[in-house]
Amino acid sequence: MHIQIINPNTTCAMTETIGTAAEKVASPGTRITATQPENGPVSIESHFDEAISAVGVVEEVLAGERGNDPVDAYIIACFGDPGLLAARELTQAPVLGIAEAAFHVATMISTRFSIVTTLGRTGIIAEHLLESYGFSHHCRRVRAAEIPVLDLEEHPDKALQRLVDECRRAKEEDNIGAIVLGCGGMADLTDEISEAVGLPVVEGVTAAVKLSEALVGLKLGTSKYGDLAFPRPKQFVGRFENFSHLNSK
Ligand code: 2AL
User: Fold this and answer.
1) Would the CB of 117 count as within 6 Å of ligand 1?
2) Which of 10, 75, 103, 106 could form a disulfide with 5 if both were Cys (CB 3.0 to 4.6 A apart)?
């Protein structure tokens, strides 16, 4: 089984962190390819960053679909799940967002969870996803450790300490059974944080790898009936000309 994990930001070090964490939980026989867009923001921590990164995500899915190494499942490894439904239109393979995957898993091991994300201003993105996916009443609180995304790579010790502190506050104050980590760059931190805090810690990259393996094992892919059918081929102009007349399989 071949899983392509797309880090929607353009920071190579974070793509590597994500790929390594995914490989650690992957079953024998699962191959992970971690990629990132050629163009786009180095980190995603605003609505603007997210809108731009969604184009990079669909380009990566198209590259996967057109490449010589067939992809069995795609994972979008940013906690805003940028471009998720658009990506699903482009392939018959399952496409999982890490926020969506983490919410599903957290509700299977707890009745209530809190999210601990990076910057407070990105909290609204998680809130919108909780609402649109139908998980709002499972989430007690969206918290922020107030760390810029790239601090996870550049100042890992400080970032980890802030995350542990915020997760401890969540445990004390939120009446929860689990914590969801709110950034793809936290993919390698579940064990350390869970041990330090004493709660199950769910992280979306690792959750999405295991859910992808389950879906592929069940021979379930993205439905091509209805709104997730391949997009109607049409002309695109200007810098998006190469999206014109996309082939549907
Ligand atoms: C993210 C994420 O997962 N990757 C990134 O660049 N920004 N979202 C977040 N809330 O920190």
Assistant:
1) yes
2) 75
* Domain residue ranges in the chain: 2-97+207-243, 99-204
Does the Cβ of 10 fall within 6 Å of ligand 1?
Answer: no
- CA of 184 relative to ligand 1 center, distance in Å: 6
Which tokens in the block code for residue 23? 């490989």
What are the average pLDDT values for consecutive 10-residue runs of the chain, which has 249 residues? 98 98 98 98 98 98 96 98 98 98 98 98 98 98 98 98 98 98 98 98 98 98 97 96 82
Asked if the domains at 2-97+207-243 and 99-204 fall in one CATH topology, the answer is yes
Alpha-carbon distance 196 to 16, whole Å?
Answer: 24
Architecture of the structural domain at 99-204: 3-Layer(aba) Sandwich (3.40)
Q: Which residues contact 171 (CB under 8 A, 6 or more apart)?
A: 179, 197, 198, 199
Fold of 2-97+207-243: Rossmann fold (3.40.50)
Please report, for the chain, how many H helices and E strands are present, in that order.
9, 8
**Type and span of the H or E element at 71:** none
pTM of the entire structure?
0.98
CA of 208 to the centre of ligand 1 (A): 16
Taking a C-beta distance cutoff of 8 angstroms, is the pair 7, 42 a contact?
no
Closest ligand 1 atom to the C-alpha of 7? 4
